[in-house]
Design a protein that fits this description.
Largest sheet: none
CATH superfamily of the largest domain: RNA polymerase sigma factor, region 2, helix turn helix motif
Radius of gyration: 18 Å
Helix content: 55-70%
Number of strands: 0
Strand content: under 5%
CATH topology of the largest domain: Rna Polymerase Sigma Factor, Chain: A
CATH architecture of the largest domain: Orthogonal Bundle
CATH class of the largest domain: Mainly Alpha
Structural class: mainly alpha
Order of helices and strands: HHHHHHHHH
Number of domains: 2
Shape: elongated
Length: about 200
């Protein structure tokens, strides 16, 4: 299995391939991978690793945890590939596996290092002159959210996923994704407070 792990190492510098651009080509790759083609599975990894990393990064607090979640997710997918229905979208399936791996890593981690939260979570505040205090509060606020709410708000507001896509990737109804986003935003507003009142 160590050979398989080396074969499917994730490299974040590859550009993503549009999931819907070649659905038949992707189905063909899945079928080949199910018959044992490592090259076909490596191509599936290449096509989906950037999005998988974005999903994992939305759930975890550190880049290292996100990388671990992507690696665990693709390894789990490789082992479970025989049970995957090639008529279903591979991207949604791998997204759910990676999201679950990231949530598991978050549950296992006892101490959260909020200082290492990726700067991309500050993207909703586009003004480069925003105060360091606001950024610190945002990092702290995001870290204080339950993992699922944190994942939903980052996946929607930073990564740009729709409610439906988030629901599919996290294994929840679209309405639950909407509700989690609403609650996460409300909690962040409360935690951030009015900086002028300090």
């Amino acid at each position: 299995m160590a050979t398989a792990l080396r074969t499917f190492t994730v490299h974040a510098d590859y550009p993503p391939t549009s999931e819907g651009a070649h659905p038949e080509g992707e189905r063909s790759l899945v079928l080949k991978a199910q018959r044992g083609s490592r090259e076909a599975f490596a191509e599936l990894v290449r096509r989906h690793q950037v999005r998988a990393f974005a999903i994992a990064r939305a759930v975890t607090l550190t880049r290292e945890d996100a990388e671990d979640a992507v690696q665990e997710g693709f390894l789990h997918a490789y082992k479970a590939l025989a049970r995957f229905n090639p008529e279903q979208p591979f991207g949604a399936w791998i997204g759910r596996i990676v999201a679950n791996a990231a949530l598991d890593i978050g549950r296992r981690r006892k101490v959260r290092d909020t200082d290492q939260l990726h700067e991309s979570v500050a993207a909703p505040f586009r003004d480069p002159g925003e105060s360091d205090e606001l950024r610190r509060r945002l990092r702290t606020g995001l870290a204080a959210l339950p993992a699922r709410q944190r994942a939903v708000i980052v996946m929607h507001d930073v990564e740009g996923f729709t409610h439906g896509e988030i629901g599919e990737m996290l294994g929840m109804p679209e309405g639950t994704a909407r509700s989690d986003l609403h609650h996460a935003r409300a909690a962040l507003r409360r935690m951030l407070g009015d900086l002028r009142s300090d």
